[in-house]
Queue: 2 jobs
Job 1
Amino acid sequence: MKVLPVNGSSRKEGCTRAGLREVARALQKEGIETEGFFIGNKPLPDCTACHRRRELGRCVFDDIVNEFVGKAKVADRFVFGSPVYFAHPSGRLLAFMDRAFYSGGGAFAFKPAVAVLSARRAGTTASFDVRNKYFTICSMPVVSSTYWNHVYGAQPEEVAEDKEGCVTMTNIGKNMAWLLKCLELGKMNGLPHPDNEKVPSNFIR
């Protein structure tokens, strides 16, 4: 079993990474492999609604998004981390997720996911809500914890001082490991995931 913690910050070793590290440690203690994925700090194109993914089988922009979707196909679960900017997640991460989930949605279905935030002070719950919508629209079980999934700090070393935040991250890892093992037992006992239908609608018709 493998979990992909995704670092959506511009800073590879910043506060977001500090929070993700706590989740990864808890997963590793439960015998779950993790492979960190940093989306980088270069500008990323937003989705242009070109619909080429149906023809190409991937996003038309051949960059780190397609690399990630390739890894997502063989991963079991995901942790998406982001700093908070003006009460919303990183714009780069949202562009990344828009394109990844639209071009490779099948790689995420029925795989548990969790959103993790880092902030100096506020805006975390609004940012938390934005990312959860990606998971719920893709039939992904959402992993919970014992408080809001965020850590506080302006610098990585300050995150370690947020004891409640760090315990929340640890509990995310524990809960995700438990859910992974439950799903694996279900699979071993012949319990498949649902075969869901999707019917698009147009409200002017």
Job 2
Amino acid sequence: MINREDMLELTRRMTPARTSMTRAAGSYMDADGDIDGTFNTNFLKLSPSDKGKNLAIAKAIPFSATNKNLKRYRFPEDSMKAGSMRQLLMGMKSCGLKNDVLMETFYDLIAESYESNNGYAVLVYHDRYDVPVKAADHERVGESEEVFEYIICAICPLEGDYEPGKPECGFLFPAFADRSADVDHIDVFQSDTGHPHLELLKILGL
């Protein structure tokens, strides 16, 4: 189960003034899953308008209804084998999305299985959060003892030329549990729980 307070701790920082996002990357797909364009940029170099748009998309994943639209899944025991999606996600996180080969591999794996009747965008964000030490009453008592490094992926329908709409699905990796990284779990988002993109779970190896 996901603790709502953990998610709120992440999302309350997702504003242009408070964000510590380091990088944004993405791929634009046509309805057939063919890549129509990619980008990979330092988050701080985005215009104020683009920062706001991208933060809104990233925030939609952890801010969604906890344990309803956003659910926690445990990776199977063999999920770290060579060539696995979990291994790829670990690599993407560790390099801060700066390895174009890893990113292109990720986009290709999404395109192979993702089901969409229209063009869509696969957007990925990297962040490092200095988790502050807090007392039992939740008051901050000192500097951080841990840096929570994570990525958020959002898959969004395209509403125009390279204009992503609200996320249809996505994930937060690793999971943020008890204010710490849990690399054995991943939090997966589905906007429509009645018609979820179950292929995303298969893509993630869950």
